[in-house]
Amino acid sequence: MRLFSAWVFDLDNTLYPVAHLYKEIGARMTAYIARALALEQSEAFALRERYFHQYGATVAGLAQHHGVDAHDFLADVHDADYSVLSPDPELAELIESLPGRKIIFTNGGGGHAERALERLGLGSLFDAIVDIERCGLAPKPQEAAYAALIGACGIDPSKTLLIEDTLRNLEPAHALGFATALVGPVHPEPRPAYVDYWARDVKELLRAFV
């Protein structure tokens, strides 16, 4: 199996299942949008979903179209109860065993990655966190986000594996020279040419490299 000098991990639904935590974060997003834009809850929810699918992150649409303070939004919606997350010792051991640098690359912000990693017992294992704020509010799959990742961390895409649960975030990475891995229960058929590896979950993937 090919080895890499850098390993770039998405966070949510890649290193842990988001269902319980994102139930609260999603509700906080909807409530914030309703307050900020004077919308009904149903309207706020629809706008949240539209901007997520259009831009890759709700905050990008809110900032661009409504002048919402992105940093305030991100801090507010991620002021959630992270105690629903638990340490994953096997995952920690696998990540620690990887040679080279380990980086988190996420569309989250407002300290979300730091809090989630701490609860998962992974906080000390990563060399850098590149979140949407560090990307100048450019979310994956926008090319500017990947350019920010490369610039911030000084990585060589041709020697880096980028690991994601979201298929659309892999295509621009592959075009820039990254090796790509998709994790998730469903194998895409046919597998797109921009997906180099697939595994049912991140631990299954990493076991092949350590």
Give a summary of the structure in a few sentences:
The chain has 210 residues and is an alpha/beta fold. 44% of the residues lie in helices and 12% in strands. It folds into two domains: 6-16 and 86-207, Rossmann fold; 19-77, DNA polymerase, domain 1, CATH 1.10.150.
Can you give a write-up of this model?
It is a single chain. The chain has about 210 residues and is an alpha/beta fold. The protein folds into 2 domains: about 5-15 and about 85-205, Rossmann fold (3-Layer(aba) Sandwich); about 20-75, DNA polymerase, domain 1. Helices cover about 45% and strands about 10% of the residues. It contains 9 helices and 6 strands; from the N terminus they run E-H-H-H-H-H-E-H-E-H-E-H-E-E-H. The chain has helices spanning about 20-35, 40-55, 60-65, 70-75, 90-95, 110-120, 145-155, 170-175, 200-205; strands at about 5-10, 100-105, 130, 160-165, 180-185, 195-200. A 6-stranded parallel β-sheet has the order 3-2-1-4-5-6. Helix 6 (about 110-120) links the parallel strand 2 (about 100-105) and strand 3. Helix 1 crosses helix 2 and helix 2 (about 40-55) packs across helix 3. The longest helix has 19 residues, at about 20-35. It starts with 5 loop residues before the first strand and ends with a helix. The model has no long low-confidence stretch (mean pLDDT about 95).
